[in-house]
Amino acid sequence: MRHCIYPGTFDPITNGHLDVLQRAARLFDQVTVAVAESSAKTTTFTAERRLELIRPNVAHLPNVRVTSFNGLLVDFAREQNAIAIIRGLRALADFEFEFNMALMNRHLAPDIEAIFVMPREAYSYTSSSLVKQVAKYGGDIAHFVPANVAEALRETRV
Length: 158
What we know:
Blueprint: E1 3-8, H1 15-27, E2 30-36, H2 47-58, E3 64-69, H3 73-79, E4 84-88, H4 92-108, E5 113-117, H5 128-136, H6 147-156
Parallel strand pairs: 1-2, 1-4, 2-3, 4-5
Protein backbone atom coordinates (compact mmCIF):
# COMPACT_ATOMS: atom_id res chain seq x y z
CA MET A 1 0.00 0.00 0.00
CA ARG A 2 1.33 3.41 -0.95
CA HIS A 3 0.96 5.59 2.15
CA CYS A 4 2.00 9.22 2.56
CA ILE A 5 2.02 11.73 5.37
CA TYR A 6 0.68 15.26 4.88
CA PRO A 7 2.14 17.16 7.86
CA GLY A 8 1.53 20.65 9.11
CA THR A 9 0.35 22.80 11.95
CA PHE A 10 -2.91 23.45 10.08
CA ASP A 11 -3.66 26.41 12.35
CA PRO A 12 -6.20 26.56 10.84
CA ILE A 13 -6.65 24.30 7.86
CA THR A 14 -7.42 26.26 4.69
CA ASN A 15 -9.06 25.38 1.41
CA GLY A 16 -5.55 25.39 -0.06
CA HIS A 17 -4.52 22.66 2.39
CA LEU A 18 -7.63 20.70 1.50
CA ASP A 19 -6.90 21.08 -2.21
CA VAL A 20 -3.39 19.65 -1.75
CA LEU A 21 -4.86 16.86 0.39
CA GLN A 22 -7.39 15.90 -2.28
CA ARG A 23 -4.60 15.71 -4.85
CA ALA A 24 -2.56 13.49 -2.53
CA ALA A 25 -5.58 11.25 -1.91
CA ARG A 26 -5.76 10.58 -5.66
CA LEU A 27 -2.08 9.64 -5.80
CA PHE A 28 -1.82 7.43 -2.72
CA ASP A 29 -3.74 4.50 -1.30
CA GLN A 30 -3.66 6.10 2.15
CA VAL A 31 -2.94 9.64 3.32
CA THR A 32 -2.39 10.57 6.93
CA VAL A 33 -2.92 14.22 7.81
CA ALA A 34 -0.42 14.72 10.61
CA VAL A 35 -1.08 17.72 12.84
CA ALA A 36 2.07 18.88 14.59
CA GLU A 37 1.37 19.09 18.31
CA SER A 38 4.35 21.29 19.03
CA SER A 39 6.19 23.57 16.71
CA ALA A 40 8.14 26.78 16.71
CA LYS A 41 4.92 28.52 15.77
CA THR A 42 2.52 29.94 18.33
CA THR A 43 -0.84 28.41 17.48
CA THR A 44 -4.31 29.85 17.82
CA PHE A 45 -5.94 26.45 18.32
CA THR A 46 -4.79 23.48 20.37
CA ALA A 47 -3.76 20.35 18.48
CA GLU A 48 -6.98 18.66 19.60
CA ARG A 49 -9.10 21.54 18.29
CA ARG A 50 -7.22 21.55 14.97
CA LEU A 51 -8.01 17.84 14.60
CA GLU A 52 -11.68 18.57 15.31
CA LEU A 53 -11.71 21.29 12.66
CA ILE A 54 -10.08 19.06 10.03
CA ARG A 55 -12.02 15.81 10.44
CA PRO A 56 -15.43 16.89 9.09
CA ASN A 57 -13.72 18.37 6.03
CA VAL A 58 -12.04 15.10 5.07
CA ALA A 59 -14.84 12.69 5.98
CA HIS A 60 -15.71 12.27 2.28
CA LEU A 61 -12.20 10.96 1.53
CA PRO A 62 -12.19 7.28 2.54
CA ASN A 63 -8.42 6.89 2.26
CA VAL A 64 -7.60 9.84 4.54
CA ARG A 65 -7.12 9.71 8.28
CA VAL A 66 -6.24 12.52 10.66
CA THR A 67 -3.98 12.30 13.68
CA SER A 68 -1.41 14.34 15.57
CA PHE A 69 2.27 13.75 16.14
CA ASN A 70 5.15 15.04 18.19
CA GLY A 71 8.85 14.78 17.45
CA LEU A 72 10.67 14.27 14.17
CA LEU A 73 8.40 13.96 11.17
CA VAL A 74 10.55 11.26 9.57
CA ASP A 75 10.31 9.14 12.73
CA PHE A 76 6.53 9.48 12.62
CA ALA A 77 6.49 8.63 8.90
CA ARG A 78 8.51 5.47 9.54
CA GLU A 79 6.23 4.44 12.42
CA GLN A 80 3.29 4.81 10.03
CA ASN A 81 5.03 2.86 7.24
CA ALA A 82 4.75 5.84 4.91
CA ILE A 83 6.80 6.04 1.75
CA ALA A 84 6.44 9.78 1.18
CA ILE A 85 5.84 13.16 2.75
CA ILE A 86 3.55 15.53 0.88
CA ARG A 87 4.12 19.27 1.09
CA GLY A 88 2.19 22.05 -0.59
CA LEU A 89 4.03 24.73 -2.53
CA ARG A 90 2.14 27.95 -3.06
CA ALA A 91 4.81 30.16 -4.53
CA LEU A 92 8.52 30.52 -5.00
CA ALA A 93 8.81 31.88 -1.45
CA ASP A 94 7.79 28.46 -0.07
CA PHE A 95 10.34 26.61 -2.16
CA GLU A 96 13.55 27.46 -0.31
CA PHE A 97 12.17 26.51 3.11
CA GLU A 98 10.54 23.32 1.82
CA PHE A 99 13.60 22.37 -0.22
CA ASN A 100 15.88 22.67 2.82
CA MET A 101 13.44 20.70 4.95
CA ALA A 102 13.21 17.98 2.30
CA LEU A 103 17.00 17.71 2.12
CA MET A 104 17.27 17.36 5.90
CA ASN A 105 14.51 14.74 5.91
CA ARG A 106 16.28 12.89 3.09
CA HIS A 107 19.47 12.91 5.15
CA LEU A 108 17.60 11.50 8.16
CA ALA A 109 15.40 9.08 6.19
CA PRO A 110 16.63 8.46 2.63
CA ASP A 111 13.89 5.86 2.11
CA ILE A 112 11.08 8.44 2.47
CA GLU A 113 10.41 10.64 -0.55
CA ALA A 114 9.41 14.31 -0.45
CA ILE A 115 6.66 15.19 -2.92
CA PHE A 116 5.66 18.78 -3.59
CA VAL A 117 2.10 19.47 -4.69
CA MET A 118 0.81 22.80 -5.92
CA PRO A 119 -2.72 23.90 -5.03
CA ARG A 120 -5.09 25.45 -7.52
CA GLU A 121 -4.22 29.02 -8.49
CA ALA A 122 -7.14 30.34 -6.46
CA TYR A 123 -5.33 29.22 -3.29
CA SER A 124 -1.76 30.06 -4.30
CA TYR A 125 -1.62 33.10 -2.00
CA THR A 126 -3.66 31.67 0.87
CA SER A 127 -1.94 30.94 4.17
CA SER A 128 -3.20 30.24 7.65
CA SER A 129 -1.42 33.36 8.89
CA LEU A 130 -3.09 35.61 6.33
CA VAL A 131 -6.50 34.05 7.00
CA LYS A 132 -6.11 34.67 10.73
CA GLN A 133 -5.06 38.26 10.11
CA VAL A 134 -8.08 38.94 7.87
CA ALA A 135 -10.39 37.22 10.39
CA LYS A 136 -8.95 39.29 13.24
CA TYR A 137 -10.20 42.47 11.59
CA GLY A 138 -13.57 41.05 10.62
CA GLY A 139 -12.80 40.43 6.95
CA ASP A 140 -14.59 37.82 4.87
CA ILE A 141 -12.63 34.56 4.92
CA ALA A 142 -15.38 32.32 3.51
CA HIS A 143 -13.47 31.72 0.25
CA PHE A 144 -10.31 30.64 2.07
CA VAL A 145 -11.46 28.20 4.77
CA PRO A 146 -14.25 25.69 5.37
CA ALA A 147 -17.36 27.03 7.12
CA ASN A 148 -16.57 25.35 10.46
CA VAL A 149 -13.12 26.95 10.47
CA ALA A 150 -14.52 30.39 9.65
CA GLU A 151 -16.95 30.02 12.56
CA ALA A 152 -14.18 28.90 14.93
CA LEU A 153 -12.09 31.92 13.95
CA ARG A 154 -15.06 34.26 14.49
CA GLU A 155 -15.58 32.75 17.95
CA THR A 156 -11.90 33.07 18.79
CA ARG A 157 -11.49 36.57 17.36
CA VAL A 158 -7.85 35.78 16.71
